[in-house]
Amino acid sequence: MELHATHSRLLLSALFLALYLLYLPVCSGDNVIKSQNDQRQYESFLLSNRLKVLLISDPDTDKAAAAMDVFVGSSRDPKDRQGLAHFLEHMLFLGTKKYPTPGEYQDFVSTRGGNHNAYTAFEHTNYFFAIDKDYLEPALDRFAQFFIAPLFTPEYVDREKNAVHSEYQSRKKDDDTRLHQVWKRVANPRHPFSNFNVGNLDTLSDRKGAKLRDELIAFYSRHYSANIMALVVLGREPIAVLRQWVSKKFSAIKNVDAEPLHITEPIFAEGRLPARVNVVPLKDRQIMRLTFPIPALSEFYRSKPVHYIANLLGHEAKGSLLSLLKKKGWVDSLSAGS
Predict the structure, then answer these.
(1) What CATH number does domain 5-250 carry, 3.40.50.1220, 2.40.30.10, 3.30.830.10, 1.10.1040.10?
(2) Enzyme catalytic residues
(3) Partner of 325 for a Cys bridge, out of 56, 213, 236, 331, CB 3.0 to 4.6 A?
């Protein structure tokens, strides 16, 4: 998805703040620490169903935006139904009880100067949109229904698994995806990272005594719970108006007290490291990637020690590692991160 640079920053802010909220205690009021130069108003709170909410009021914005993060990703795929979380992400766009026509939400957003998308990651699934500032309220009404009453219409279940299969087929020719899949094969097979997270016609087919649609609904009912969701809304309206809209539209999301997945298995099995893996690319390119398993970083979210290490290794100015390697003619680019 492509947006004007300013609009991209608004939307990315919404995305990252939604993720940020999942790890922080939420209290009520104008309680968000911000720069003295930031004239926007903020408020964070919990709805009665324990949905975390952050509101951003910007009277000068020409785009409104929203993002919903669900603390459930491909790591929760059943072993015998890999790719289910990703498939569910696709299905939520294909009609709800209040707005049953598939594509109605997409058409509403795109014809009003907006964009929309979603992605399924290892631990999170994120849905987001941006739209002309005058249409936030009806867009939120459509958006909320994804998490309240999706239809999972049988005919679209059959259609959309073919779309997922096509996505899988197209990725097979991408070298970065191939490299990622090799990394999964090297990982501990008992760790969910090793699973096949995209899905295809094999993993998403009906089986004897196991209908895909039934398992899809069961997965949604079990994991899409308000207590592990976080919502960010940005609009030109005052905070009080945004709060009223969100409370009215999102309080109906069910809270089944879902628990995030706690993984105890190491990502690499004992005795598997150090390891060297050679991968033959499809394109004419040469890449060296060094991977080090490290402890979980959540408790260090304030100090971010790995960001310092990544900055030192990935810096590109004079005197940096990249400048030296480029001077020797050994590399074109270098990056580092966690």
Answers:
(1) 3.30.830.10
(2) 89
(3) 331
